[in-house]
Amino acid sequence: AMEKSYVSVFLLLVAISCVLAKDVGKKETKETSTKPKLPQTLSRGWGDQLIWTQTYEEALFRAKHSNKPLMIIHHLDDCPHSQALKKVFAEHKEIQKLAEKFILLNLVYETTDKNLAPDGQYVPRIMFIDPSLTVRADITGRYSNRLYAYEPSDVSLLYSNMQKALKLLKTEL
């Protein structure tokens, strides 16, 4: 009788640990399938309520699979021009609203992709890439020596370029 109760207890423990193991497995898959919102440090102050991608590769993947254009902002923390543009960008309600239609990436380092620096590695520079992963070299700012640069005073041009990136997308796909 003693042996029987040992076996029963043992089987009960096995059953419990199986159930618990299943639960643990479930939790992990649930968390990975519904992506948690990334910590807002990724916004680096460009719009904390927006969803930012972490890497260029992830951004390209998301643009391709979501059929949204990608907007890449190259900037540096210690660059006064970047900081000034960031402030205007983050406070511009229409830009923040429109930005939700983009896959967003802001980079404080250069990528190795030469297409992202067609006319040099200056900051701040903002480029658009469509879901076919083509860099939109035709969407530029107002400076002929730095085609993708925007000053805080160019915020309305940036806004219309964002609209242009979305419009071109619809007509070309």
Automatic annotation (TrEMBL):
- Gene3D superfamilies from the UniProt entry: Glutaredoxin (3.40.30.10)
Q: Where does the protein principally reside?
A: endoplasmic reticulum
Where does the UniProt annotation place the signal sequence? 1-21
> Can the keyword Endoplasmic reticulum be found in this entry's annotation?
yes
Q: Where in the cell is it found?
A: Endoplasmic reticulum; Secreted
Query: What does the entry list under GO cellular component?
Result: endoplasmic reticulum; extracellular region
Q: Which SUPFAM superfamilies match?
A: Thioredoxin-like
Q: Name any one GO molecular function.
A: dystroglycan binding
**Where are the annotated coiled coils located?**
none
Swiss-Prot/TrEMBL keywords: Endoplasmic reticulum, Secreted, Signal
Pfam families under this entry? Thioredoxin_7 (PF13899)
- So what family is this one in? Belongs to the AGR family.
* Designated name of the protein: AGR2 protein
